[in-house]
């Protein structure tokens, strides 16, 4: 088990686009050198020399992918009323410099009041529905301190332009719902509107509890019964990777498994004690990232490696991770 290293010294990231006067590869003009260097791994570009590092962070070079997190103060931390109303922060981790950096502030009109824990409601975390679609971070639903839906319309962040914007308004804003996406289209299921109804069916049951399962057929616009094998192994948070394969973490056993649709069964990838108490999961670029231990760590599994390679990412100091996502790095502010 590896742990992502903490930065030992500051890295110079200023003047990242000022590469015209630097020779990238002897004997080649820079525009041809950039084509050659684009075939190298970002980790190699970061470590070889400052000129290549500046190229890696420049706007002319394809962005590498980073971790994005929603974080909240731990339950034992005292917060004032303002912090309680605005307890969620958005950050991104540079995988090479190991630095956390804040995302730009979301729009203030309308203001965003998003809670993960309520000061007087200690027995339950309040869910926040967020996902990634077409290289955007999308917030779909959450809860305010008055226990009403926090979002009347989706809130989106585009890392490559470093910009937040709102989507079209919901017909009925809701919270405690489920979200997913297919082909760039977002789907929102179930949930609670401003007034709770005990007759409403909920889509998510944690752990090994007895449950029913349904699959939404996008092409036919129909709900269908979930295959028996899929339902039997759905014992924790699940996520698709590239809309091709589904991964699930058994939150009791700490086992990460991949669904085999032809045989209707789950194939175990790896089982680790660190994966127990899994709360949320994201997948992309061959990696599965799992929020575990009450948000105190992110376990990353490289499922393309044989055997699977695993390391742990620590959250920012004094924060617990609510959810994790994989997106292109943020563009540098002008």
TrEMBL record:
The organism encoding this protein is: Hevea brasiliensis (Para rubber tree)
Q: Give the source's domain of life in one word.
A: Eukaryota
Protein name (Swiss-Prot/TrEMBL): F-box domain-containing protein
Q: Gene3D superfamilies this protein is in?
A: Kelch-type beta propeller (2.120.10.80)
